[in-house]
Amino acid sequence: MSKKVAFLQGNEAAAHGALYAGCDFFAGYPITPSTEVSEVLSAELPKIGGKFMQMEDEIAAMATILGASLAGAKVCTSTSGPGLSLKQELIGYGCIAEIPCVIYNVMRGGPSTGMPTGPSQSDVMAAKWGTHGDHPAICLTPASVQETYEEMIRAFNLAEKYRTPVMVMPDEIVAHMRERVVFPEKGEIEVVPRKSPTVPPEQYKPYDTSFGDVPPLASFGSGYKFHVTGLNKMQDGFPTTKADVVQAEEERQIRKVDANIDDIVTFEEYMLDDAEVVVVAYGSTSRSARYAVNVAREQGIKAGMFRIKTFWPFPDKQIKALASRVKGIVIPEMNLGMCSLELERCAQGKVPVLGIFRVDGEPINPDQILAKIKEVK
Amino acid sequence: MAFDYDKWIRPGKLPHIWCPGCGHGIVMKGLIRAMDTLNLKKEETAVVSGIGCASRLPGYIDCCTLHTAHGRAAAFATGVKMAKPEMNVILVGGDGDGTAIGGNHFIHACRRNINMTYIIMNNYIYGMTGGQFSPCTPTGHKASTTPYGNPDPGFDIAKLAIGAGATFVARGTAFHANQIDKLIAEAIQHKGFSVVEILDDCPTTYGRRNKYKSVIEMMNRLKDVAVPVKAAEKMTAEQLQGKVLTGVLYKDETKPEYTAEYAKVIERAQAAK
Questions:
Q1: What angle do CA A209, A236, A74 make, to 5 degrees?
Q2: Is A93 within 8 Å of B80 when comparing Cβ atoms?
């Protein structure tokens, strides 16, 4: 049997990816350029008995999905820059209370209202540093419509597996372009269920580390009663200011991601075997980068591309390895040098990191990247 | 025989954080009696709060309890209720949490008429942070941030709730302890968004700044200003000057309830499939 194929926009694909992953509750607030996710899910969720809510504001949308997730739903919200800023308070709540959820954020120009219909990649740092305090961060940056579909499924899986908020952050170009999407059959892509408690209710503790760094999460209304707070907490969920407990719990939350980097981090290596110049790119910018690398190769330049699919946790190990064998790194990005800082950190001064930074709402074209590749001596 | 509150209190979680003379404990006991009267199942009951002294209440109650972020209780609770409409969802919090930082979520929960009960303990002040003025601090009164008297006019929480579309609105006071459980029980039984405002006291950060010599004086004030709605019907406008109505102020059983309405959305979507 041939697979179902559709011609979809990135945002529409994201909505369908969420449905494949078993999303049954969505809350959002209208914002350009991500509103299509809400529009698709408002139509599709009720068909499968799921629920869609348009809330009074971005903060409410984030709060409502966290509440629904605690009551056992698989949840998602969608937004863009200004909405991401508003949601940050409760993204932190999701991190400390360890509530699985997916935040789909389309990157548009900023700061503030910025350029609502223009593409940008300037939210990548907000994905890691936007909410206050130390916390784990997982952020995926798809580069095509098909990949947006698939990365939404992976985001739900990671959220459940590591019991933490996960962000999917396409730039506006990926979110609004239309491409062919081949839908996977049911069961073809793994869907990870939530780890539920095996102990009886009277023995249950929501942060019981005897089950490892990711303790099972019971649902409200499933026979288990427990307490959830945004305060630093003990294993039973109640607040504490005991220094050793707070330190250990905060470190465990970070460790959920840090100890599993190889399971989370994904990337694509393109013509890197003999490359002397590596273009590091993510999102739609990687499409121009691939073209530039092809042209450079035709001209006899040994160029290649390292495409970041998982922006957080950052692929430190891979970039460090590249930095010790290439002559230079080129980083095109639609911001004023965010990924560039991470690359410089990983390159440790071994090779130059040459940036192409655009925040004018225009995509970075292959010619610009090719010219920068040629600057590497 | 004295009522056994212990069966609803989580073992080992008392003493509570509230100051001597604070009325929050009286409200908590009222809530417990109401839940007990209605025979609510602990596992099927969520108690949700925001941030502040009153919002610490859920931690003491042996149910599914969710202490959220400042002002966000109504939005978190909406998610719980939508995911599990069969659960009893009860919100608790203070006046600053509910009507300032959480004001938007509050009015929209009222508008949706989602079947939850919101108990607002109105002590006219931000107690936990040390007594800053809230949207309910009376004009002219002193707070740590109104050293020359409060220039702001205050909210009438009950009117706000009615105007925003809540379908059950009641008011009681911490002095009238025996009425609290009855108001809360009636609110929980109501199918729709119900709001119970309890006029409360904060002797520590509000009373001493506003010349209340004792907790007893604060409680006596609550006793003196409260007029039951029935009694008010026989009083003149002059007699009602400076008084506050108590009891069930508003009830509308005709407005559709949100989770039931959403169930119809699902039916329509599935019929059209």
A1: 75
A2: no
Q: In terms of CA atoms, which chain A residue is nearest residue B107?
A: A56
What's the start-to-end Cα distance of chain B, in Å? 59
Report the side by side order of strands in the sheet with A75-80.
Answer: A51-54, A25-28, A75-80, A101-106, A165-168, A139-140, A310-312
Q: Are A72 and B265 within 8 A, CB to CB? A: no
Count of domains observed in chain B = 1
What is the DSSP track for B198-256?
EE---IIIIIGGGT---HHHHHHHHHHHEEEHHHHTTS-TTTTTT-EEEEEEEE-S-SP
Q: Which residues of A fall within a CB distance of 8 Å from B64?
A: 220-221, 224-226
Domain of residue B174: give its range.
Answer: 5-272
Compute the nearest-CA separation of B12 from chain A (Å): 11
Tokens of B11: 């073992």
Q: A-B interface: how many C-beta pairs under 8 angstroms?
A: 141
Location of structure tokens 């073209």: A291
Residue A60 at interface with chain B, using a CB cutoff of 8 Å: yes
- Which residues in chain B have Cβ-Cβ distances shorter than 8 Å to A219? 84
**CB-based contact (8 Å) between A312 and chain B?**
no
* CA B251-B254-B260 angle, 5° bins: 110
Identity at A344, one-letter amino acid code: E
DSSP for B61-85, please give it: BSSEEEE-STT-HHHHHHHHHHH-T
Instruction: Per-residue pLDDT tens, chain B, 273 aa: give them.
Output: 689 999 999 999 999 999 999 999 999 999 999 999 999 999 999 999 999 999 999 999 999 999 999 999 999 999 999 999 999 999 999 999 999 999 999 999 999 999 999 999 999 999 999 999 999 999 999 999 999 999 999 999 999 999 999 999 999 999 999 999 999 999 999 999 999 999 999 999 999 999 999 999 999 999 999 999 999 999 999 999 999 999 999 999 999 999 999 999 999 999 987
- Token match 């098909």: residue? A146
Ordered by where they begin, the domains of chain A are 5-182 (3.40.50.970), 201-262 (no CATH), 265-375 (3.40.50.920)
Out of B68, B108, B270, closest to residue A47 by CB: B270
CA distance A128 to A138: 8
Whether A68 has its CB under 8 Å from any CB of chain B: the answer is yes
User: How many residues are recorded in chain A?
Assistant: 377
Q: Do A71 and B83 touch (CB under 8 A)?
A: yes
